[in-house]
Amino acid sequence: RPSDERCRERLPSAHEHFRRVHVLAGRRGNGLQQRGGRRESIARVFREQLENDLLERFGDPRIDRRGPTDLLRNVLTLNPERYREGSGGRPIYFETVRATGKDGRFILAGMRSNGVEFPIEFTFSCVEAGQEMLIFSAVRDITEQRETAKKMQELNNRLARDNTELDALNRELEAFSYAVSHDLRAPLRAIDGFSQALLEDYADRLDDGGRNYLTRVRLAAQRMGELIDDLLKLARITRAEINAGEVDLSALAEEILEQLRQGDPQRAAEIIVAPGMTVQGDPRLLRIAMENLLNNAWKFTAGKTPARIEFGQTGRNGAPAYVVRDNGAGFDMAHAGKLFGAFQRMHDASAFPGTGIGLATVQRIIHKHGGKVWAEAAPDQGAAFYFTL
Predict the structure, then answer these.
(1) 215, 345 Cβ separation under 8 angstroms
(2) DSSP-assigned beta bridge partners for residue 307
(3) Kind of pairing, strands 319-326 and 307-316?
(4) What pTM was computed for the model?
(5) Consecutive H or E run containing 307
(6) How far, in Å, CA of 85 to CA of 107, rounded?
(7) pLDDT tens digits for range 200-248
(8) Where would I find the beta strands (DSSP E) of 186-291?
(9) Cβ contacts of residue 65 below 8 Å, gap of 6+?
């Protein structure tokens, strides 16, 4: 119970108060109190109480009842032998405190009644009493703190190793990105360019089959170039740092959807954007995420008349969640596990062109903001993509 815990926490300080009164009363010898119908020395009363407490707490059978010096000696037996080099068997740090006359703090070892050592913290306060100096001490068992500190150090060491490995991986990724952007693009441009030259300069010498093959070579080279571009974009987003600021998601969605509408003015589409959705995040990265989500909604509602695209806000576990919802092609939730993987596709490329990198990009951005992204859908019944920040 909380009350029991408080008692256990205050027990060491209570022992210290008993000891102080015991020593002072023992020196003065004139403290009396009424107990059991007789007047007895306060020193004797407190000494007996303290000895009983020590006996119960430490199980030390060596405690005797001859006087304050013997009691102090009994208390000092809690110190291992290597700390008993001072005068009168006192711990050596007593001598240090006595010589300096200053308060002190030591992290040392204590010894239990069974002889097992454990880490303790000694704090000392010095008080001048006439020609003498009294040293008041408090002892605290810091076994749990030591174990916690050890675990924290292990975690810090592991984190340092992980950071070193992450730095190495980032350098490898940068080297790969450089190779992709420079070394791979040049051969692709050559393939596409020479194929185009053959089609233009030798068209009269090629039959329909030859021209078809060259056209397919060019399309494949161009698609490979698009995949490389998207892969580089994903790598840059992964390495990008968050530059947080205020972002009006409502205004951003309206701007992106207006651009889509201008690019295809003949589309019959119902657009609904909830107002006032303002968040803290990286404006550039959140724009990329919103462009991918809304472009997908626009693309996959191409066969619907009218298309319906909504951007709004809901809740998840007491926190705001944002949703892009459409009435488009949807997908089977049985395949939702691969939805946010790079180059994963739910539909045939001939019906809905793309590289399959958009949702992977969205997930990376949302995760960098400490959020989550997930989807709900059904075939031919539309889809809803939710995210938190």
Answers:
(1) no
(2) 269
(3) antiparallel
(4) 0.54
(5) strand 307-316
(6) 17
(7) 999 889 999 999 999 999 998 888 888 888 778 777 787 778 888 999 9
(8) 245-248, 269-273, 278-281
(9) 47, 48, 51
